[in-house]
Design goal:
The structure holds 2 protein chains of 2 kinds. Chain A is of the alpha+beta class. In chain A, 23% of the residues lie in helices and 34% in strands. Chain A folds into 2 domains: 220 residues, Rossmann fold (3-Layer(aba) Sandwich), CATH 3.40.50; 109 residues, Nucleic acid-binding proteins (OB fold (Dihydrolipoamide Acetyltransferase, E2P), Beta Barrel), CATH 2.40.50. In chain A, helix 2 packs parallel to helix 4 and helix 3 crosses helix 4. A two-stranded antiparallel ribbon of chain B has the order 1-2. The longest helix of chain B has 32 residues. The chains are: A alpha+beta, B mainly alpha.
């Protein structure tokens, strides 16, 4: 198993730049998520790590060795493709043993290895079936089997759950994570699904337009988004943005929004002009005595909680409150924002201002 | 009234469709039946009018096809030892004796060598080229593909004279190699275009999986792409073989002896003096067999090949 270091990785396809100078480190044994909307460069990054695309510039180090210009076959990594890419002209057993055949492993050893993998993945009964007729979950397991059979340095997974139906995804996600915990293999996993990333990942890189927006643990990224894009992309419903013109003063623990003062974590840098105050829906409470007022426009019932949409002088705000609380349509109520959790962004750069709360968070 | 579903044809339309198919089958098969039956007729039966549907089968045509015969003087004919074999006997019945084997076997073998040789070469080169066009960034790819296709925009025979002169200069006239190269040159554009279509349909992920699994690009091509392109290769091979096998004009022009194929040879069987239709028909029948067998063997692939892309995904 291995540590993977990405340094200033860049990939151009003609005039189009898919990845613009990414840098991050994947620690040995980490379950690492590359997250972003489609076209953000996450798959290209994965393919460069795998050796299916060669970078235009920059370095990829696997276990300290620069492999950026080496072909895939010399990198000793395994990959699970979105559509599984099982060899259609071979049965399950041959598919799983194929990576070992290329290494010239003796037949008896291959048989033992395949049997072991089949036991781990619980696919012993389908070993001699052709891959054509397999159900989605079984294909997924065979693809995993082909990846784990030769103990590679790292696993690449390109939206491996994307081809499964919703019901089965949940189950497979758990299985994948359990498999990872058991094998402790460095895994790089591409997904556009933020819930999947948060649920399974040790670390997440959020990419957009070929740029790494933020790199960190799921909790850091959720609680302290480094940019407006990350704040908007992660979380459902997304973070609320109150847009206003004002001045943020380093050392201050409050900011004037209109004619009100709102408390937030102590600011460590100053900014003037268009600002955005970010607050997660679950950190908005309805309180009659709060000075910041909004009108209840809609309410969505979600079982244990409900999402209440309010209109405020700075745009719509969604609040996640217990479903037992009453919010009457048309009523004007007070909104109490949880000061510790607020983020303040510079609207022009999209970057979060440094505060006492997010000081340790990595930017892209 | 009976209700019929929209997708299910009515019995009457089924009947009409069936009749049309039967009619079409008769029209296409009749010439074949004619040729095959003529091959087994005796000389007089083959030219009788109205044509005989029922006749006494004879192997005279086949014997004449494979032998050259000569007429001997009447008294000498009487003194000959009795016929040793059944084909000797057939020839004696017509008042002649066998002088030796004909060249048909040789010409037929030439057809096999040139036909299958050029098919193999077309497929070999075509698959590699199609793979490159399908998978790699080839400079001027579209122009090259158009150029390759443009070689088919006029009938090949239009360039017969330059090719004749060129072949004479290069010493390729009347050689097996020359004919193989010529038919390959004509077939290669068809092969590249057809095969590119088939290879385009094979998802790249399969090769990428093989690359990741530790195989080189060429190994991935051979072990993963080729087996999946088998359908396309088979149907392309049939098209190439049919052209090379049936080609007549260039064969007449460029071959006369060593490398002469069956198509220009068969008309010469007609003989001097009489018109030996049964022998010609026998030659045509045998000539039909290889392509027929090849096509029947690959039939499954051919049908899948034609509908390829229409039903996948």
């Amino acid at each position: 198993m291995a540590e993977i270091v990405i340094r200033n990785l860049r990939k151009e396809f003609g005039a189009f730049t898919a990845v613009k100078g990414s840098s991050f480190t994947i620690k040995d044994g980490e379950f690492f998520m590359l997250l972003g909307p489609s076209g953000c460069g996450k798959t290209t990054t994965l393919r460069m790590i795998a050796g299916l695309e060669l970078p235009t510039s920059g370095q990829i180090l696997i276990d300290g060795e620069d492999v950026s210009q080496k072909p895939a076959s010399q990198r000793d990594i395994a990959m699970v493709f979105q559509m599984f890419a099982l060899y259609p002209h071979m049965n399950v057993r041959k598919n799983i043993s194929y990576p070992l055949v290329s290494q010239g492993v003796p037949k008896t050893q291959i048989a033992a290895k395949v049997a072991e993998v089949a036991r781990i993945l619980d696919i012993e009964d389908i070993l001699d079936k052709p891959v054509g007729g397999l159900a989605g979950g079984d294909r997924q397991r065979v693809a995993l089997g082909r990846a784990i059979v030769r103990n590679p340095k790292a696993f690449m997974m390109d939206e491996p759950l994307g081809a499964l139906d919703a019901e089965f995804r949940e189950h497979m996600a758990e299985e994948l994570r359990a498999l990872h915990d058991r094998m402790k293999a460095t895994t790089v996993y591409v997904t556009h699904d933020q819930l999947e990333a948060m649920q399974m990942g040790d670390k997440i890189v959020v990419m957009n337009h070929g740029v790494v927006e933020q790199f960190g643990t799921p909790q850091d990224i959720y609680d302290h988004p480094a940019t407006l894009f990350v704040a908007d992309f992660i979380g459902s419903p997304a973070m609320n943005f109150l847009r206003f013109d004002g001045t943020a003063q380093a050392g201050s623990s409050a900011i004037r929004v209109g004619d009100l003062s709102i408390d937030l974590p102590e600011l460590q840098e100053s900014a003037t002009g268009a600002l955005v105050l970010g607050v997660r829906p679950e950190h908005v409470a309805l309180a009659d005595d709060a000075p910041y007022r909004g009108r209840v426009e809609a309410s969505e019932y979600l079982g244990t909680t409900q999402i209440v949409t309010l209109s405020t002088p700075h745009g719509p705000v969604k609040a996640r409150i217990p479903s037992g609380d009453v919010a009457r349509l048309g009523e004007t109520v007070g909104l109490r924002l949880n000061a510790r959790t607020l983020s303040l962004f510079d609207a022009n750069t999209g970057r979060a201002l440094r505060t006492a709360a997010n000081a340790g968070v990595h930017h892209g | 009234m009976t209700a019929y579903s929209i997708t299910e044809p009515t019995p009457r339309s089924k009947l009409i469709a069936g009749l049309l198919v039967v009619l079409y089958t008769i029209v296409t098969l009749l010439p074949l039946v004619w040729i095959i039956s003529t091959g087994f007729k005796s000389g007089p039966d083959s030219i009788s009018y109205p044509p005989k549907v029922l006749f006494e089968p004879s192997l005279e045509g086949y014997v004449n096809l494979f032998t050259t015969r000569t007429r001997v003087a009447a008294e000498e004919f009487q003194n000959l030892p009795p016929a040793e074999t059944w084909y000797d006997e057939i020839v004696r019945d017509s008042g002649m004796v066998i002088a030796g084997p004909s060249r048909f076997g040789e010409r037929f073998l030439n057809s096999v060598i040139i036909g299958f040789g050029s098919t193999f070469l077309s497929i070999f080169l075509g698959t590699l080229a199609a793979y490159a066009f399908s998978r790699f960034k080839v400079p001027l790819k579209d122009d090259l593909l158009f150029f390759i296709l443009s070689t088919r925009m006029m009938p090949p025979i239009a360039v017969a004279i330059p090719i004749y002169l060129m072949y004479r200069e290069l010493g390729l006239s009347d050689t097996h190699l020359g004919m193989i190269l010529l038919y390959t040159a004509v077939n290669i554009s068809l092969a590249v275009w057809l095969l590119k279509g088939f290879i385009d349909e094979i998802p790249r992920e399969y090769e990428e999986a093989a690359l990741i699994d530790g195989y080189t690009r060429f190994q991935a091509f051979r072990k993963v792409v080729l087996p999946q392109a088998a359908t396309g290769i088979a149907s392309t091979a049939i098209f190439c073989l049919i052209f090379a096998w049936n080609e007549y004009a260039f064969a007449v022009l460029l071959t006369s002896g060593t490398a002469q194929t069956a198509p220009p040879f068969i008309p010469t069987i007609i003989g001097v003096g009489g018109q030996d239709w049964p022998a010609v028909a026998a030659g045509a029948t045998i000539f039909l067999l290889p392509v027929m067998i090849f096509t029947i063997l690959l039939r499954k692939h051919l049908l899948r090949g034609i509908t390829f892309g229409a039903v996948r995904k």
